[in-house]
Amino acid sequence: KQAEKAVHQKEEQSKTKCRKARRRHINLVAEFNHRQRKNIWLETHIWHAKRFHMVKKWGYCLGNSPTEKSYRACYRAMTKQCLLQDLSYYCCLELKGKENELLKQLARICSIDTGLTFQEASCLSGRFEGSLNLYQADRYPEGMLGPVTFIWKPRDGSENRQLWIWVHPALKQ
Question: Pop1 N-terminal domain: which residues (predicted)?
């Protein structure tokens, strides 16, 4: 019985590690990966988690409201024009194909009446980013999905083009 007791105590001792060992970088990375199984963390998650109340939305863990009672720091940052927002949770959709075919199909989900479209000359060159509102296919006034931003890859001589569209995670489907 004494020998079994000694073996059992050694097993318990090996499980409990000091705080320094638990907080080693390798262990932290493994722990963070384990925590993000349900909700994806942004690159700035640790920074935000210290300063914001975190909310789980759209499969991501996002900073919602600051924990500070005063908003002085944010106000000061806005007046000096250096306030940042992490939008890395936005989804990037890449479309590849012949330019004419892409434009033909994309014309069904946007309208000239609302302003800019995917066919805008300044955006087609790939030098400027554009933004517009997407609609359900062929349902312009009623079926609005939401705003998107897009940029074309500059032409490389072939008729095939690439288009990158950034959409909110709620619009991804």
Answer: 4-97
